[in-house]
């Protein structure tokens, strides 16, 4: 897909200037650095929020360089876990990419590319693999290539902070869980001890009552025996006296 409003002659002139600039080696001097910074300020970056399935960086470069001179291309590959889950379900084993950035030597062209191609089919020959896929492109004003790495660094720091917070939260939850288990164990032990003490007290009271009953029974038996012995003794004395009187 080509732009209808592009000035072809102007584009060819710019491409020639860029090619000559690339071939010409500037000395590493303050003037050279200043010249590079001046050229670098004209660079523009577009952001691809969605990469067509299995499209490679080489294909990205091939598709975009027809609109203007491009520099670096960077695509973020899918995570290992995502690829593992996809291939496990029988998906394509080719590498897939999730998002990407393309650097143009002219930010005006980068802006036009984003505005013209966003939400449009990639197009191409009838049997082209990516013909029906839709571009999702955004021009990033005042955004330079180094900002990608800075953004990536900030995301890593943010991810690290989130991870540390999650780890800290997990530790707190584990500590609370262990405390609850320990509290439950102590409570269970206390209840068991109370029940044991209660059982022992009841058993002891029962033994005491049994002992008291036994003592009472023994005392009653002894008393009955004494009474019986006394009666027997009285009977014997009475019989003895009768015998003496009878003899006389």
TrEMBL record:
<dbReference type="GO" id="GO:0005730">
    <property type="term" value="C:nucleolus"/>
</dbReference>
<feature type="domain" description="RRM">
    <location>
        <begin position="44"/>
        <end position="124"/>
    </location>
</feature>
<dbReference type="InterPro" id="IPR035979">
    <property type="entry name" value="RBD_domain_sf"/>
</dbReference>
<dbReference type="InterPro" id="IPR012677">
    <property type="entry name" value="Nucleotide-bd_a/b_plait_sf"/>
</dbReference>
<comment type="similarity">
    <text>Belongs to the ESF2/ABP1 family.</text>
</comment>
<dbReference type="GO" id="GO:0000447">
    <property type="term" value="P:endonucleolytic cleavage in ITS1 to separate SSU-rRNA from 5.8S rRNA and LSU-rRNA from tricistronic rRNA transcript (SSU-rRNA, 5.8S rRNA, LSU-rRNA)"/>
</dbReference>
<dbReference type="GO" id="GO:0000472">
    <property type="term" value="P:endonucleolytic cleavage to generate mature 5'-end of SSU-rRNA from (SSU-rRNA, 5.8S rRNA, LSU-rRNA)"/>
</dbReference>
<dbReference type="InterPro" id="IPR000504">
    <property type="entry name" value="RRM_dom"/>
</dbReference>
<dbReference type="InterPro" id="IPR039119">
    <property type="entry name" value="ABT1/Esf2"/>
</dbReference>
<keyword id="KW-0694">RNA-binding</keyword>
<dbReference type="GO" id="GO:0034462">
    <property type="term" value="P:small-subunit processome assembly"/>
</dbReference>
<feature type="compositionally biased region" description="Low complexity">
    <location>
        <begin position="204"/>
        <end position="221"/>
    </location>
</feature>
<dbReference type="InterPro" id="IPR034353">
    <property type="entry name" value="ABT1/ESF2_RRM"/>
</dbReference>
<keyword id="KW-0539">Nucleus</keyword>
<dbReference type="GO" id="GO:0003723">
    <property type="term" value="F:RNA binding"/>
</dbReference>
<dbReference type="GO" id="GO:0000480">
    <property type="term" value="P:endonucleolytic cleavage in 5'-ETS of tricistronic rRNA transcript (SSU-rRNA, 5.8S rRNA, LSU-rRNA)"/>
</dbReference>
<feature type="region of interest" description="Disordered">
    <location>
        <begin position="204"/>
        <end position="235"/>
    </location>
</feature>
<protein>
    <submittedName>
        <fullName>Activator of basal transcription 1</fullName>
    </submittedName>
</protein>
